[in-house]
Amino acid sequence: MSNPYLLLTPGPLSTTATVKEAMQKDWCTWDHEYKTIVEQIRQQLLEVGCASKEHYTTVFMQGSGTFGVEATLGSVMPSDGKLLVLINGAYGRRMEEIAKVLRIPHLSMEFDANMPVDPHAVERKLIEDASITHVAMVHCETTTGILNPLEAVMDVIKRNHRKAIIDAMSSFGGIPIAVEELQIDFIISSANKCIQGVPGFSFILCRRDELKKCKGRARSLSLDLYDQWETMEQDSGKWRFTSPTHVVHAFKQALKELAEEGGVEARHERYRMNQQIVVEGMTQAGFKAYLPRELQSPLITTFLYPTHIPFTFEHFYTFLKSAGFVIYPGKLTDIHVFRIGNMGDVHPKDMDRLNAHILRYVGESQYAN
């Protein structure tokens, strides 16, 4: 059965029929064939992140991306450490909330939602507060679609001898990231984002020497990153607790399709084209993007509510859903916005169709007015 609509959201995303088909069989969690697949995926993810097996390893964590973030923060931060959280959207704020709940000593630096993290301000804070041991940042903040300057921030973190925890939930696999070259210590993403799998687990690429320091630090039994890694290492791909076997097989297929598309660079180009077509069409229809082009990621775009037509998000959403597209509400609290994603099994021809329906919506709204 074909999908009734395309998901133009930050995730879950529209997946291919072949990814969905990979979930049609039942699998055993401790079977040798299954564990071999897990090990293959762990290595493939290092390759996607341009990280060597000598210095990095991949750990899976059951649950959504937030589970992976919480597992990382809760397992990596030592009792005498201090976390600096960089915030310019809801997902940076979520890391702050996790630190509060886990009673991790921390402080936050906040930037406006329409401004990227400022590396110079971060460096001043690191020089000013020598007690900071780790820095956490969201790469692509899907609250707005802004892309934070990962390379510049990593340069500051490493120059000042701190450890980096990067939430790359919405960018890993869709934007080239040279994990080892940038010396990222822990980088987190999810099966259902740019790799174009389905929801069910997150994954963390970890520097081996830093992960080894995490033994006994975890603030949770099930979200213990070190113990999960140790089990996978000692038992060749076994998860400590029941793993999402169907999701893992779908992810294996999704990684195969990423390679067939031409890798991260080719997928990044497709997403970039999708985003460009959407912005051009929305501009033609009288909508305005929230962010300037130079700050915009190719993954999701935030648009202001229009003033040239009668508009409610609910009516616009229902109209587009009936035409075969699902978009996303805004996440800003001080301004009315909505979001259109470009990730997943979505192609430029789909964006052209979307634009045609949006132009029809505007025309009908103007006529009704």
Automatic annotation (TrEMBL):
The enzyme's E.C. designation: 2.6.1.37
InterPro entries documented for this protein: Aminotrans_V_dom (IPR000192), NH2EtPonate_pyrv_transaminase (IPR012703), PyrdxlP-dep_Trfase (IPR015424), PyrdxlP-dep_Trfase_major (IPR015421), PyrdxlP-dep_Trfase_small (IPR015422), SP_NH2Trfase/AEP_transaminase (IPR024169)
UniProt KW keywords: Aminotransferase, Pyridoxal phosphate, Pyruvate, Transferase
Catalytic reactions of this protein: (2-aminoethyl)phosphonate + pyruvate = phosphonoacetaldehyde + L-alanine
Domain Aminotransferase class V: from-to ranges: 31-322
Post-translational modification N6-(pyridoxal phosphate)lysine, affected residues: K193
Pfam families associated with the record: Aminotran_5 (PF00266)
UniProt KW Transmembrane helix keyword: no
GO molecular function: 2-aminoethylphosphonate-pyruvate transaminase activity
Keyword check for Transferase: yes
Transmembrane segments: none
Residues annotated as binding substrate: R339
GO biological process per UniProt: organic phosphonate catabolic process
UniProt cofactor(s): pyridoxal 5'-phosphate
Family indicated by similarity: Belongs to the class-V pyridoxal-phosphate-dependent aminotransferase family. PhnW subfamily.
Annotated PANTHER family: 2-AMINOETHYLPHOSPHONATE--PYRUVATE TRANSAMINASE
NCBIfam families: PhnW-AepZ, PRK13479.1, transamin_PhnW
Quaternary structure note: Homodimer.
Function: Involved in phosphonate degradation.
Protein name: 2-aminoethylphosphonate--pyruvate transaminase
Organism: Paenibacillus endophyticus
